[in-house]
Amino acid sequence: MKRKFLFLSVACSVLAALLVLATAWLVPRYQVPILMYHAITPSWHEPLNNVMPANFARQMNYISSHGYRVMTLDELVEGIRTGRRVFQRSVVITFDDGYENNYTRAYPYLKQHDFPAAIFLEVANVDHPGYLTWAQAVDMAAHGVTFGSHMMTGAYIPGLPREEAVSQIRESKRLIEARLGRPALFFAYPIGGFDETVKQALRDAGYAAAFATNRGNDHKGMDLYELKRIRVKDGDSALVLWFKLSGYYNFFRPVKSSN
After folding, report:
1. Same domain for 126 and 160?
2. Residue 36: which pLDDT band, with cuts at 50, 70 and 90?
3. Structural domain includes residue 259
4. Are 22 and 125 members of one domain?
């Protein structure tokens, strides 16, 4: 009996020590998960970039019911810039391209839960069929949605001449600010492609931060012009969503080339 008690005591001590070590190893590696969506619609020609409205509603309900704090891009970037620790059940919600269904399908659920979000616009497509109108963007901007640039056309930046890339980086920012009357401080790289020259062009244009996918080498999430995001898929189970929201998902992802 004594041997059994001693064995259990030692086992519990070892497990407790392992838990402390695991916690000490994990905590410094925590990154606020930045979720990446595109279209929210029942049917779409790019399944990888589409989430059905019912599943988007389920995902927003999960975030709400499990006590996650949804941050704005301003809060995220200021926290990284100053080194301020954040609540470890935090998350950021972003959308790329600026589809009209972000307004008709996603926006009602964001308002229902009082969640802020960010949309990166392909600025030349605004007011075109299938995309947001400027009037819709004005409405969303007044209710917790931040707008940033996804270039004028969503073109893959490494494939553009430098002059064209710089022009689109600057002009898209100027038009968003002119139309919405608010600073456009954030940028998302189309298809995640960038290099150091592009990052410098964004700094020069006045952007405060830029968002990629899982490209680049910044494992610590501290490079404001190389912030990784996590693609949310239509078929993500509750377990997969939990892992993506854990704050450690990026650490276990393979890193792609940035260009």
Report:
1. yes
2. very high
3. no
4. no
Answer whether residue 258 is part of any domain: no
pLDDT in tens, 75-107: 999 999 998 878 789 999 999 999 999 999 999
Q: How many domains does the chain have?
A: 2
Could you tell me the residue range of the domain that residue 9 belongs to?
1-30
Integer Cα distance of 206 and 183 in angstroms: 10
Task: Tell me, yes or no, whether 41 and 25 share the same domain.
Answer: no
For residue 220, what pLDDT band results from cuts at 50, 70 and 90?
A: low
The Cα–Cα gap between 7 and 171 comes to 69
Calculate ∠ Cα 116-230-52, nearest 5°: 70
